[in-house]
């Protein structure tokens, strides 16, 4: 049977669901494609540099065949696969996609040992990675896991920031943590490294669920700290 082309919706809403078509957002200098995979509704993000066609995949979470088709049809110049953290639902397709594409992988050193593929590049707080003409800042957010990271890039022309947070920041709160100390670590990092650094119009792309903005979440930081989760 002939494989049907993967249809991507260009009416971007920030909402995808398991089995739905990916949605693509076009911003100055890049496109961002969001797709939900697997039973835990994991978000996968493909960021493509508009000028060069080079791209990065964030979290090869599940459904390797769908991800391979997405890459084959819409990211022929994929340069890197980044894993935001060590939890298995974010890397279940990593080994298969890496084998199929031969693309190098990257993760934070504190989570690297738990991954099924040894990262070719270790990403630490303050590092940058460049894909075509798009440069991402690497932000270490300790708490959900020891080596969780976020990636941030600004639109061409010093436009708004787009922030990929893995499971460290969602609409309505930070990610799940094992105890009070890890919660305090994560909330402190999120507050100081994200909310202090970036403006309200920064778009947040979480590891599960819908997008949000820092401006939407900022008024609730005190509530999150008071409730302890």
Structure overview:
- The protein is α/β, with parallel strands linked by helices.
- The protein has helices at 64-74, 94-101, 109-112, 180-195, 214-217, 221-227; strands spanning 23-27, 30-37, 42-49, 54-58, 77-82, 105-107, 121-122, 128-131, 134-140, 149-154, 161-166, 169-170, 173-174, 203-206, 212-213.
- The strands form 3 sheets. A 7-stranded mixed β-sheet has the order 1-2-3-4-5-6-7. A 6-stranded mixed β-sheet has the order 8-9-10-11-14-15. A two-stranded antiparallel ribbon has the order 12-13.
- Strand 3 (42-49) and strand 4 (54-58) form a beta hairpin.
Topology (elements, then pairings):
Blueprint: E1 23-27, E2 30-37, E3 42-49, E4 54-58, H1 64-74, E5 77-82, H2 94-101, E6 105-107, H3 109-112, E7 121-122, E8 128-131, E9 134-140, E10 149-154, E11 161-166, E12 169-170, E13 173-174, H4 180-195, E14 203-206, E15 212-213, H5 214-217, H6 221-227
Parallel strand pairs: 4-5, 5-6, 6-7, 11-14
Antiparallel strand pairs: 1-2, 2-3, 3-4, 8-9, 9-10, 10-11, 12-13, 14-15
| Strand segment tally | 15
Shape: globular
- Report the C-alpha radius of gyration, rounded: 16 Å
Helicity range of the residues?
10-25%
How many helix segments? 6
Order of helices and strands: EEEEHEHEHEEEEEEEHEEHH
Q: Which class best fits the helix and strand makeup? A: alpha/beta
Question: Which properties best describe this structure?
Answer:
229 residues, alpha/beta, seven-stranded mixed sheet, six-stranded mixed sheet, 22% helix
């Amino acid at each position: 049977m002939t494989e049907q082309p993967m249809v991507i919706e260009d009416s971007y809403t920030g909402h995808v669901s398991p089995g739905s078509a990916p949605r693509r957002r076009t911003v100055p200098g890049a496109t961002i494609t969001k797709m939900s995979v697997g039973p835990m509704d994991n978000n996968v993000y493909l960021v493509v540099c508009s000028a060069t066609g080079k791209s990065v995949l964030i979290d090869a979470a599940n459904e390797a065949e769908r991800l391979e088709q997405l890459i084959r049809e819409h990211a022929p110049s994929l340069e890197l696969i980044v894993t935001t953290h060590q939890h298995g639902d974010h890397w279940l397709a990593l080994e298969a996609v890496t084998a199929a594409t031969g693309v190098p992988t990257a993760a934070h050193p504190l989570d690297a040992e738990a991954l099924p593929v040894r990262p070719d590049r270790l990403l630490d707080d303050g590092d940058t990675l460049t894909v075509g003409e798009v440069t991402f800042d690497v932000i270490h957010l300790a708490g959900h896991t020891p080596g969780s990271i976020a990636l941030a890039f600004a639109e061409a022309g010093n436009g708004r920031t787009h922030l990929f947070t893995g499971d460290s920041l969602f609409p309505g709160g930070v990610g799940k943590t094992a105890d009070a100390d890890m919660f305090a670590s994560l909330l402190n990092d999120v507050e100081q490294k994200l909310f202090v650094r970036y403006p309200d119009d920064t778009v947040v792309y979480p590891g599960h669920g819908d997008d949000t903005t820092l401006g939407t979440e900022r008024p609730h930081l005190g509530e999150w700290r008071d409730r302890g989760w």
